[in-house]
Amino acid sequence: MTMGPLLIGIYVFVLAGFVGFEMITKVPPTLHTPLMSGANAISGITVVGAVAAATTGAPTVANILGALAIVTATINVVGGFLVTDRMLRMFGKKKK
Amino acid sequence: MSQEVIQSTVVPVVYLLSMILFIFGIKRLSKVKTARRGNALAAVGMLLAIVGALLELGVVDYRWIASGMAIGTIIGLLFAIRVQMTSMPEMVALFNGFGGIASALVATSIYWDKVVQRAPAGTVYEVLGTDEAVTVMLSILIGGITFTGSLIALFKLQGKLKKGQPILLPARHFITFGLLLGALVLGGLAVAAAAPDSVMWVLALSGASLILGILLTIPIGGADMPVVVSLLNSYSGVAASMAGFVVGNPVLIIAGAMVGAAGLILTQIMCVAMNRSLLNVLVGGFGVTDGGGGSGSDEYTSVTSCGAEETAMLLENAESVIIIPGYGLAVAQAQHAVRELADMLKERGTKVTYAIHPVAGRMPGHMNVLLAEADVPYEELLEMDVINSEFKNTDVVIVLGANDVVNPAATKDPASPIAGMPILNAHEARAVFVVKRSLSPGYAGIKNELFEYDNTMMVFGDAKKVLQELIGEVKNL
Question: Distance between CA B379 and CA B234 in Å, rounded?
Answer without folding.
Answer: 31
